[in-house]
Amino acid sequence: MIGWTASMISYIPAFLRGLGIIYVIIPMVIQLWPGIVRHVAFLNFLCPPNAYLQLSEPHAWKLINATNIYLQCRSAVHLGVWHLAPLDGSSLCLADAEKVLIYCHGNAYHRAERHRRQLYQLLQDLGFHVISFDYRGFGDSSGTPSEEGIIEDALDVYKWTIERVKNPHCQILVWGHSLGTTVSTQALLKLQSENFPRQPDGLILEAPFTKLLEVMYEYPLSKFLIVIYPKWLILSIIKAAVDKNRLAFNTVECLPKLKMDMLILHAKDDKRVPYQFGHKLYKTLQSGSKCHSCKLVSFDHSHGLGHNECWSYHGFSDIVSDFSTAVKESKCHGFTTVDF
Q: Which pTM value belongs to this model?
């Protein structure tokens, strides 16, 4: 036993040297391969092989009144798109739709992820035609994601949808979740600057953030690195990597320029994108913006909704339905907050 202990002790110097080498290498790796930060931002590699996904068959995911389309974009990228018609079967064709919602999902996985499907079904039950798609490099969509690229994808899907909606009174809403909040915001700002003839009637942002750099500082890995390294070093390395990858995702700069009604949804126990970001966006809009109205709905920690489960709140359908009705009847006014 004494011999075994002495043998173990003899390894301690080598172990400590190994830790020292790792300590030095980690910051160097991020500096030398800044593409790591891009992978962390998109997480599109967190996805099973397409052969196992069956994304071309929505019914395999137990979705009703759903069809799959492959849309070719301007950049010769093919996007996997789902059109989910209302559950009651009252309208299966986009041409005569009364309500359409275009959904921009967050990072990681694909359009069939569980919490996304749960939301689609809730929206279908409310009478919406739901258009959901995977950005380039996600799911069964081709290409490689970039900030400019996935914003272009959202624009192309929006315009494709509008071309097929023939009802002039159809309500058009856009919903962004997490990464999708900045994608939808920037895409709609481009639409607005183009004076596109059919602008959306409202924008719903679920778990939004101000800008990528700020939210990346809140990542668990970033927080861990800040504990073991000088804070200034880690923050400067992350910033340099974000800049080199041309990833701004600056929602706080773009959102105040949009001219429409908005609804912000955020759970206070969201650990991936903390509630402070959604609240800051609301305050920014309130202090000076072109938006017609904005309502901030927050969900208390006690509900345990986190980052992905807002849809499961028992009154969630009413929140969405009330917003849709208020937009349609032009009853959205000013800035309001509601806590559940």
A: 0.92
